[in-house]
Automatic annotation (TrEMBL):
The keyword Cell wall biogenesis/degradation applies. Pfam families: FemAB. PANTHER family: LIPID II:GLYCINE GLYCYLTRANSFERASE (PTHR36174). The keyword Acyltransferase applies. GO terms for biological process: cell wall organization; peptidoglycan biosynthetic process; regulation of cell shape. Keywords: Acyltransferase, Cell shape, Cell wall biogenesis/degradation, Peptidoglycan synthesis, Transferase. Belongs to the FemABX family. It comes from the Bacteria. This is Lipid II:glycine glycyltransferase (Peptidoglycan interpeptide bridge formation enzyme). GO terms for molecular function: aminoacyltransferase activity.
Length: 376
């Protein structure tokens, strides 16, 4: 059974560098971004002392009590293909219990099912189909199925997803594969041909209209944030403060410059679209986006997305991740527009194992659930 002990951020960073990729939520830099949580890096070691796993743990304190929810977003980074997950998880839980955790929440980074673009489009068009899970998937992942079965057996509780979005990280995402099945890189032309006609037309229109896309500096975060606040007002969501993005820029780029890139799309000097891209090894993410209500006809958002995809291909990334979607395929649901936008890229809908809780102190965990229900 591997042993678990705290490690330094440098050891954490060095171990991640040996892997093809890991979630950016499991990097040491992310602990600095989430400053309202206490963070800790953990390492797994085999009998010979060789490091075989890593995790970023975020501790959230209960009001008025020195007890914590220990949260590992999209982690831990261990061998999820192992038939004996207890050997990995039990020593971790024992450590977290000593740290005062009343419950542990994990997000196994394993895929359970995949659906093609064609399947998603057919589902939206079919009035009898309301949820992605009603469609037989193009692929069922045996490692994902085994992980889910083992977690149930070990007493972990799957966290339900209300309306498709979990309180933590999304269970369903939309991704564009940037490699063929044999592992070779897809070309820009191949990825472009996989997009729908509207996406291709919009990318071409942006170029014809003279939209110029370039990467921005830390100083450009202010302009991004102004556009992001404008987007939040238009689309009715609560924006994060500028300081959050400055912290994110500093913390993630301290782990590696490729971890955070700001993209700016301008038309005749006006900022019409701006996004934040994140990359860890072979995995590239679209993280935050903003767009102007003015000049929407020049298609700045499509131009910036295409620039990010091209950059990911050039970096040798295996996947371009557009992050969360809901499970709904109901044409009348307001969330379906987001899926339709992402489906246009020609990628695939991907389901992960989701988030799982293990109550360490059942009474406190129950009280925590009641508190969340009242707050929600």
């Amino acid at each position: 059974m591997p042993s678990v002990r705290p490690i330094s951020p440098t050891e954490h960073r060095d171990y991640l560098a040996t892997l093809p990729s890991a979630s950016f939520l499991q990097t040491p830099g992310w602990g600095k971004v989430k400053s309202e949580w206490r963070s800790e890096s953990l390492g797994w070691f085999d009998d010979e002392g060789k490091q075989v796993g890593v995790a970023l743990v975020l501790y959230r304190q209960l009001p008025r009590l020195k007890r914590f929810l220990a949260y590992l977003p999209e982690g831990p980074v261990i061998d999820w293909a192992d038939d004996d997950l207890a050997a990995w998880l039990d020593p971790m839980v024992a450590h977290l219990r000593k740290q005062g955790a009343f419950a542990v929440r994990i997000g196994p980074p394993v895929v359970t099912r995949r659906w093609t673009t064609a399947q998603v489009k057919e589902g939206i068009a079919d009035a009898d189909v309301r949820l992605l899970s009603q469609i037989p998937p193009a692929e069922r992942n045996p490692i994902g199925a085994r992980t889910v079965a083992q977690l149930h057996e070990l007493g972990w509780r799957h966290q339900g997803v209300e309306g498709g979005f979990a309180a933590g990280q999304p269970q369903f995402v939309f991704q564009v594969p940037l490699r063929h099945a044999d592992g070779t890189q897809r070309t820009e032309d191949e990825v472009l041909k996989g997009m729908n006609q509207l996406w291709r037309r919009n990318i071409k229109k942006a170029a014809k209209e003279g939209v110029e896309v370039a990467t921005g500096s830390r100083e450009d975060l202010k302009a991004f944030h102004e556009l992001y606040v404008h987007t939040a007002e238009r689309d009715h969501f609560t924006p994060r403060p500028l300081r959050y993005f400055e912290t994110m820029y500093d913390a993630l780029r301290a782990d590696g410059e490729e971890r955070f890139t700001l993209w700016m799309g301008r038309h005749e000097g006006d900022l019409v679209a701006s996004t934040i891209a994140i990359r860890v090894g072979e995995h590239a993410w679209y993280s935050y986006g903003a767009s102007s209500t003015e000049k929407r006809e020049v298609r700045g958002s499509n131009a910036v997305q295409w620039a990010m995809i091209r950059d990911a291909i050039a970096a040798g990334a295996a996947v371009y991740d557009l992050r969360g979607i809901t499970e709904t395929l109901d044409a009348d649901d307001p969330h379906v527009g987001l899926i339709q936008f992402k489906v246009g890229t020609g990628g695939e809908a991907v389901e992960h194992a989701g988030e799982w809780d293990l109550p360490v102190n059942r009474a406190l965990y129950k009280a925590f659930q009641v508190y969340l229900a009242r707050r929600g």
